[in-house]
Amino acid sequence: SVSILIFNTSRQCFVVVKQFRPAVYMCEVERHHPQVFRNQDKESFSHLEDPLPAVVGVTYELCAGIVDKPDLSLEEIACGEILEECGYRVPVTGLRRITSYRSGVGVTGSRQTLFYAEVTDQMRTGEGGGQPEEGELIEVVEIPLEESMKFAYDETLPKTMGVIFSFMWFQNNIAPKLPKK
């Protein structure tokens, strides 16, 4: 897969997405209602009397997507995801490769490549939001630069490790070069 740290230079903020993740939701159900999973099989899985709100399954994430188009480069896939999920048109030359690493090592062990892209308000050509026909319901969220590290360490805001790592990478590699206010 690919993921992209997006920084809007017009407003000095990061552009991330919020998505409902069924696995996160089910972990919260298990945490709050452990009895539901005890001695249950598919046929007798009980109905939850007091269901949790869907928001407990929502996480903050980097813009990302799977590599499922063999005729496209990782950069082309990343640019397509930025447009589809966040509404910004970024040229392939506007991407900077940060690194690649293994994600989901306990389940899939897949390789993810992380990119960095700077965008401006003028590059926004759409609303983003993903493709509902593919089951995506994505909310675009802006995190102001000055609040980003507080956001990264706030344990009440469910986020992926990619968000935390990329914000730290930005602080070490990009922030020192930004013009001082």
Automatic annotation (TrEMBL):
The Nudix hydrolase domain extends over 1-165
Q: Name one GO cellular component term.
A: cytoplasm
User: Which cofactors is this protein said to need?
Assistant: Mg(2+)
EC numbers listed for it are 3.6.1.45
Q: Which domain of life is it from?
A: Eukaryota
Q: InterPro entries recorded for this chain?
A: NDP_pyrophosphatase (IPR004385), NUDIX_hydrolase-like_dom_sf (IPR015797), NUDIX_hydrolase_dom (IPR000086)
Report whether Magnesium shows up as a keyword of the record: yes
Q: Where in the cell is it found?
A: Cytoplasm
Catalytic activity line of the entry: UDP-sugar + H2O = UMP + alpha-D-aldose 1-phosphate
Q: What is the purpose of this protein?
A: Hydrolyzes UDP-glucose to glucose 1-phosphate and UMP and ADP-ribose to ribose 5-phosphate and AMP. The physiological substrate is probably UDP-glucose. Poor activity on other substrates such as ADP-glucose, CDP-glucose, GDP-glucose and GDP-mannose.
Q: Which protein is depicted?
A: Uridine diphosphate glucose pyrophosphatase NUDT14
Source species: Leptosomus discolor (Madagascar cuckoo roller)
